[in-house]
Amino acid sequence: MVEPASRQRFSALLLNILVAAGGIIVALPLVWMVTSSFKPLNEIYAYPPTLIPQEFTTRNYDRLFSDWPFWNWYGNSLIIAVISTVAVLFFTSLAGFGFAKYRFKGSRLLFIVLLASTMIPFQLILVPLYIVMSRLSWTNSYFALIIPFMAPALGIFLMRQFMVSIPTELIEAARIDGASEFGIYWRVMLPLARPALAAQAVLTFLASWNSFLWPLAVLRNRDFLTLPVGLSTMIGSVTAGSEPPVGATMAAATLVSIPVILVFVAVQKQYVAGLTAASVKE
Length: 282
Description:
Elements: H1 4-36, H2 41-44, H3 59-67, H4 70-101, H5 107-116, H6 122-135, H7 142-146, H8 153-164, H9 168-176, H10 181-192, H11 194-210, H12 213-218, H13 227-235, H14 246-277
Helix pairs in contact: 1-14, 3-14, 4-8, 4-11, 9-10, 11-14, 13-14
């Protein structure tokens, strides 16, 4: 008969093996992408495929930087993602604070309508939103990519759910000490809501960094494109007698992955804590 302790060790070992196998399956395509960015085209297409480059070359990166305005795309995406993340963190945390700690007439109905709006597909509002941006002369600008998305409903929901768990007594104590309502939000609620802010920052940065449909609709200038749209133009930019830009695309994808990995590694603990705490109910 298997002892309970032995059974637990066996279960833990099996779980670790499954997690390790899953990690390898997820990481293998990423490793192949990075190594392929240093391979010549014939080796990328070679069968059976090789993980380590047999002929190491930086030609793919040289071609990427010379044939396409990659750094312009990179800068555009980085600026838009950073500004969007900061704006979303401010407005969603402020709205979440209001919904979590204030009771006003119609607050529950307003919150329900806010949540219901998340069920509307973005494709349904794309044309009306584009018309609004066009009439404001914001097409082909940062404004169209940032302002319409500064207060997403899911972000407000996430912040509200986290702030509900913060004791109201702290707010009352701050009021007794003479803090203003905005001072309570800035000095009391925000420091305590760091896990939720980290989770929201990662989600917002990823959404902005990977956004494709909306930038494709509103951007026209080649130098002003974001990375997802710019990379899509690379795939279809093969001319007669030129080599398909497979290696250059791999190089671009490798460089595009770096900020996402850095952001997640920097806030991974707070990210997990924020997503877990957001499930707290009243």
